[in-house]
Amino acid sequence: MKQICVIGVGYVGLVTGACFADLGNRVVALDMNKKRIENLKQGIMPIYEPGLDELVKRNVKAGRLSFTTSYAEALHGCEFIFIAVGTPSGVNGEADLQYVAAAARSIAQNMTGPLIIINKSTVPIGTGDWVADIVRSAQPKPIPFSVVSCPEFLREGTAISDFMNPHRIVIGSLDKEAANKVAELHLPLRAPIVITDLRTAEMIKYASNAFLATKISFINEIAEICEALGADVKEVAAGMGYDIRIGKLFLDAGLGWGGSCFPKDVRALAYMAKEKALETPILDAAVKVNYRQRKAAVQRTAELLGGSVKGKTIGLLGLAFKPNTDDMRDAPSIDIAHGLIESGAQVRAYDPAAMDAARSILPAVDLFDDPYSMAEGCDALIVVTEWNEFKQLDLERIKSLMRTPVIFDGRNIYDPILMKQLGFTYRSVGRGYNHQP
Ligand code: UDX
Ligand code: UDX
Prior knowledge:
By secondary structure, this protein is α/β, with parallel strands linked by helices.
């Protein structure tokens, strides 16, 4: 059992802390947001993540997990400290590291014994060295420490499973002893462990996210060509995916990527390159294709309604950037709602988990508690987030409730032939059927 501290109880930090506690360690999770910590002490989760509520409560009850806003309390007897504070995009796409710097300074001022400081947050290449400089300069007196990069590869909605079943653990440090100690923390996960230097570990994270984002933009570009030539991108992706060099995952064409990671990490990597006077044509193209999908959803819905959405009522099925999360950071739903409203439409929405987030993000959108009451009187619906509950909707009932039976399926969850049989005016992304007579 090790004494671990996690700084930042967001999507990454809370899952990381709860999972390390579940492995038998003693974890103290710290956040500067007092309300968030008070809520957690009362068993109220700050985020929606399947399984997290039970995991946190069980480990708190077992005495392995606790919460505080005090660095002095958190660092008492601590051997490992994970920095998992936000690293949002700055105005030019660069990663904003003010919170990482604040955490590093607070650690330096409160540490009482040797520490291994682990960057869990996604940070630009070279940040590990920068954190070490901050700690060294902020310490009242020199106390030994090492900085290690241990990037996260957690997907929201499956974060606990992704933590417990990692494809690999990446550890970056110039201090082999520290790297080995961090590796030991992860041994119960029985996953391949890559130990390398700090900058390489930081780059593995960015390159992995940038590749996945590019793979999605690639299939979305293929989808455009499929639609023009009458092929079905879902079948194309299936045929591609059997090739283990390609792999079947992250080949779902649709409205593209959102969330707090892909958009931020692709921009940050491109920014780092441009700071070294390097061009990034592939990353730039991946971003361009990605955000084009959102505009296309508005345009295609207008086409389905005879050319304009002005004066029409449009319902959004889903708001979160992906299913099984309440996270709306850079969600396609935001740009789609804004595009529709700017074009004169009245927009409604329903999402199984993101309604609280949506109230402040999309105040002009009418929110409904279920898809059927939302559909009543709508001229068109747009599938924005592929929640399972949308896949088995009673479509005949939906059709009877709508003013006109028009659906733009932004996540290709329905069967075009069935939709035609049901009498919908239906369009999806990259499905050759759109051109069937
Ligand atoms: C964030 C980044 O988005 C991700 O790229 C990185 O890999 C990990 O950190 P996430 O957990 O989604 O992931 O961040 P967020 O949900 O914003 O939570 C960050 C937490 O840190 C918040 O609870 C915030 O209150 C806390 N925080 C922020 C601190 O405790 N101290 C600070 O100085 C700043
Ligand atoms: C991602 C990475 O997968 C994870 O390893 C990293 O740690 C954080 O960023 P996340 O953003 O939580 O995780 O979700 P993910 O499942 O990767 O989806 C990202 C976005 O891509 C979502 O908006 C999703 O809708 C979209 N997506 C995903 C597609 O459009 N098509 C796909 O085939 C897969």
